[in-house]
Amino acid sequence: MSRSFSRAELESFRDAEVPDLLGGPEDPPVRLLFVGINPGLWTAATQTHFAHPGNRFYPALLRGGVITEPVDAAAGMSEEDRGRFRARGIGITNLVRRATAKASELSTDELRAGGAELVALVERVRPRVVAVAGITAYRQAFALPKAVPGRQPEPIGPAELWVVPNPSGLNAHETVESLASAYAEVGRAAGLL
């Protein structure tokens, strides 16, 4: 069940961090690592990636077959949900760890530092596929101004690298259907479908 926050409550989470959702030693290896830009305030408040009620990440994953059970992220992901992600080999992280109201509050330096940290994380976790959600942030983080969405020509460490659409409700030209199609494609590449 979704909850709500006042603007003041949300602002209290500015600069907070959200832990990565990654498997532990008892879990199967991460096969597909989704990478958001940075946590929004709602995400920080619920400690759940892509949690804002207008975000279409989880509905698109479900529609694309990447996950098999619905997730009410706006209320905060349950431990059962987290366990299902880990069991399927799906992880989630961000380019920048600190929460902001808008991704536009991030500097290019923060995004570039986050890109370097992502490379180190991928070297350690060794997923089959990395899917960065957002072409603009990807271009800035990796200093690739002409990059286009889809599978990238160069891997990131040992992983195949993809750039997929950002599921934020602010990305108005994407629909749950178009997001589901893109996410299913990376799911297939990771061997999940």
Q: In angstroms, what separates the terminal alpha carbons? A: 29 Å
Portion of residues within helices: 25-40%
According to CATH, the homologous superfamily is Uracil-DNA glycosylase-like domain
Reported for the largest beta sheet, the result is: 5 strands, mixed
- The beta-strand count equals 5
- The CATH first-level class comes to Alpha Beta
Tell me what portion of residues adopts beta-strand conformation. 5-15%
Count of alpha and pi helical runs: 7
List low-confidence stretches. none
Radius of gyration: 15 Å
Give the topology string: H per helix, E per strand.
HEHHHEHEHEEH
Q: Regarding quaternary structure, how should these chains be classified? A: single chain
Strand arrangement, largest sheet? 2-1-3-5-4
Label the CATH architecture. 3-Layer(aba) Sandwich
Number of domains: 1
Task: Average the pLDDT over all residues and give the rounded result.
Answer: 94
Look up the CATH topology.
Uracil-DNA Glycosylase, subunit E
Shape: globular
> Structural class given helices, strands, pairing?
alpha/beta
Keywords: DNA damage, DNA repair, Glycosidase, Hydrolase
GO molecular function: pyrimidine-specific mismatch base pair DNA N-glycosylase activity; uracil DNA N-glycosylase activity
Enzyme class: hydrolase
Protein name: TDG/mug DNA glycosylase family protein
Structural features, described:
There is one protein chain. The protein has 193 residues and is α/β, with parallel strands linked by helices. The protein has one domain (7-189): Uracil-DNA glycosylase-like domain (Uracil-DNA Glycosylase, subunit E). 35% of the residues lie in helices and 11% in strands. It contains seven helices and five strands. The chain has helices at 7-11, 41-46, 57-64, 79-88, 108-125, 135-141, 176-189; strands at residues 32-36, 90-94, 129-133, 150-151, 160-164. It has a five-stranded mixed sheet, with helices on both faces. Helix 3 (57-64) packs across helix 7 (176-189). The longest helix is centred in the middle third of the chain and has 18 residues, at 108-125. It is globular, with a radius of gyration of 15 Å. The mean pLDDT is 94. It comes from Nocardioides marinus. Residues 22-184 form the Uracil-DNA glycosylase-like domain. This is TDG/mug DNA glycosylase family protein. Keywords: DNA damage, DNA repair, Glycosidase, Hydrolase. One of its GO terms (molecular function) is uracil DNA N-glycosylase activity.
